[in-house]
Amino acid sequence: MRKFLLAVMLCFVASGAAFAADDVIKIGFYNCLTGQNAFGGQLELEGVQLALKEFPEVLGKKIELVVVDNKSDKVEAANAVTRLINRDKVNVIIGTYGSSLAIAGGEVAEVGKVPVIGTSCTNPLVTQGKKYYFRACFIDPLQGAGAATYAYRKLGSKKAALLVDVANDYAVGLANFFKQSYIKLGGEIVSDMRYQSGDQDFTAQLTEIISKKPDIVFLPAYFAEGAIVLKQARELGATFRFMGGDAMDNPEMVTLGGEAIEGFLYTGFAYAPDMKEMNPVAKKFTENWKKAFPNKDPNGNAALGYDSFILAYDAIKRAGSAEPDKIRDALEKTKDLPTVTGVTTLDKDHNPQKDIGVLEIKNGKKEFVGTIVPE
Amino acid sequence: MDINMFMQHFINALGLGSLYGLIAIGYTMVYGILRLINFAHGDIFMLGAYFVFFATVQFKLPWMLGVAIAIIGTTLCGLLVDRIAYRPLRSAPRISALISAIGVSFFIENIAVVIFSGMPRPVVQPPLLMEAFSISGIRLVPLALMVPAISFMIVTALLWMIYRTKSGLAMRSISFDIETTRLMGVSVDRIIALTFAIGSALAAVAGIMWALRYPRVEPFMGIMPGFKAFIAAVFGGIGSIPGAMLGGLSLGFVEIMSVAFFPKLSGYRDAFAFLLLVVILLVKPTGLMGEKLEDKI
């Protein structure tokens, strides 16, 4: 049934592809504003809004932002893109948090022939083989390699163990990329343990890992599971460090994990308001953010929202036209564009090569340790 | 594998297994008396964990009070479920009650998502129970010993109640024949309600201990433990209380030891548990301690 609906929707999109009125340029935005990923989606929206305030016009026309909620749901994500293309007739789209949502939305955009700039969807499949999907964030292979480089070079670890959720594509992918890079660098994987989403007891896997005496354990989990894995590991007397990926970046992690989470390292987007060396764009972004939202700290998602807008803005300017296909062609040629999360150049798969940020939980707060260039 | 490591796995398995056993008793009691598989049991267990979360984390009540509130609250929920969803179907075909149970299970899960939100919440562990110590290289927290101890105490108390009290006699009698028991002047609905009350209170105790050991609550936390406990109940022989405990322990050992001895297959840990169910149903359908049931016509 869903497939059938999707097919009907796609037909609509195909027949209705026309673009906006001449007086404004419309940028569509679809993201998780409610549902389980609302935390990230909301921050990305605020990042985009901040950029819009700074760049309200392009080619002498006003930019209008059209916001649609995808409710953290795949079907809603496809619906949202359909709506933006058909009803609102936007020129370019920004979104979304969550790779599976971006993949669902991307199918629709491909038929509707409107370019989309992904904010924080890190799975390679989002842009792979797609003509109209681009992104502002790094991809998981790069992140896994970044984590491995940091673990091997900076922490000087020689033996690593993995603890991976086999039912989660993100975790399996990230773990494989970590493993490949770590072995290539000269490290050894002493234990490769698995669990299933929804498991709550990790004592058997952890006891096995502890017996192999690794220097570091790579745990590419979501924050809710990650936090209790760390708790059980400390109960069992584990002394090694844990390292994770960007999905651990959630303030709830500290509430869930408490003291056990102290010293936890994770890779993320190369921006944090407390980072020591900031590029000029990041500096300006942080200042403007503090004026606009004095009670809320920005994070990597907010920065990527902002960067996605900059990418769109730059492409429209270079294209000299608001026609979606011309914007697409211009996006493809994005080169050396200064953005908050580093200089952005899109490769042939529409992905930027970016530095990876490394964060650590210290005294119950996350702290930006630095950036690393993946090897 | 050296002996220390084996003992560590043993302790882990004992803790997990006795929790499964405790949940399994709830399944087995209701089944033993009504021949109904109460699929909502795992969700009642989840409610128990949420009650203790709200009492101790949200309202900052002392621990013992929180535990008491959780047990009472969960018991009331269990009684409500019986009154609304099962009692009107007492004389209906068994399949109707089973479908009703599945409905109740989905209802509780989804209403919990709406009320509590899907966000996992942390449970505060009393530091006294969590101070780790080592005995010849084996890491222990007091909680890890408390869970099996409490479980065995509860099983003993239950067996006493069932074999030594009037209500227990009535329960056993209902399990043989509801109509005849009613003719004997036993208030059948009251005894069944009592069964649900005990089952739910046990689910609450299991929920509390689960939340202590795996300190996080979320609306779907009851699904997997519920399934596992169901396997445990079938493995031990559904309807038998010592069987449920034994089944729970066996399942805990199968899960932990499969990872301990075959670390390469750790991703198949849950698959081993369900494989056990299939094997048991094929080889010994009545379970370890189940009685051979004569079909009642």
List the helices and strands and how they pair.
The complex is a heterodimer of chains A (375) and B (297).
Chain A: H1 2-15, E1 24-31, H2 38-54, E2 57-58, E3 61-69, H3 74-86, E4 92-94, H4 99-112, E5 116-118, E6 133-135, H5 140-154, E7 159-165, H6 169-185, E8 188-195, H7 203-211, E9 216-218, H8 223-235, E10 241-244, H9 252-257, E11 265-268, H10 280-292, H11 300-319, H12 324-332, E12 337-339, E13 342-344, E14 356-362, E15 365-372
Parallel strand pairs in A: 1-3, 1-4, 4-5, 5-6, 7-8, 7-9, 9-10, 10-11
Antiparallel strand pairs in A: 2-3, 11-14, 12-13, 14-15
Helix pairs in contact in A: 1-3, 1-4, 2-11, 3-4, 5-6, 11-12
Chain B: H1 3-34, H2 41-58, H3 63-86, H4 94-116, E1 121-122, H5 127-130, E2 133-135, E3 138-140, H6 142-164, H7 166-176, H8 178-183, H9 188-213, E4 216-217, H10 223-236, H11 241-261, H12 269-283
Antiparallel strand pairs in B: 1-4, 2-3
Helix pairs in contact in B: 1-6, 1-9, 1-10, 1-11, 2-3, 2-4, 2-9, 2-10, 3-9, 6-7, 6-9, 7-9, 10-11, 10-12, 11-12
Characterization of the model:
The complex is a heterodimer of chains A (375) and B (297). Chain A has 375 residues and is α/β, with parallel strands linked by helices. Chain A has two domains: 2-138 and 279-344, Rossmann fold, CATH 3.40.50.2300; 141-268 and 357-372, Response regulator (Rossmann fold, 3-Layer(aba) Sandwich), CATH 3.40.50. Chain A is built from twelve helices and 15 strands. In chain A, the strands form three sheets. Chain A has a seven-stranded mixed β-sheet with strand order 8-7-9-10-11-14-15, with helices on both faces. In chain A, helix 1 (2-15) runs parallel beside helix 3. The model of chain A is unreliable at 14-20 (pLDDT under 50). Chain B has 297 residues and is mainly α. Chain B has a domain at 16-221. Chain B has twelve helices and four strands; from the N terminus they run H-H-H-H-E-H-E-E-H-H-H-H-E-H-H-H. In chain B, the strands form two sheets. In chain B, strands 1-4 form a two-stranded antiparallel ribbon. In chain B, strands 2-3 form a two-stranded antiparallel ribbon. In chain B, strand 2 and strand 3 form a beta hairpin. In chain B, helix 6 (142-164) packs antiparallel against helix 9 (188-213). Chain B is globular and about 60 Å long.
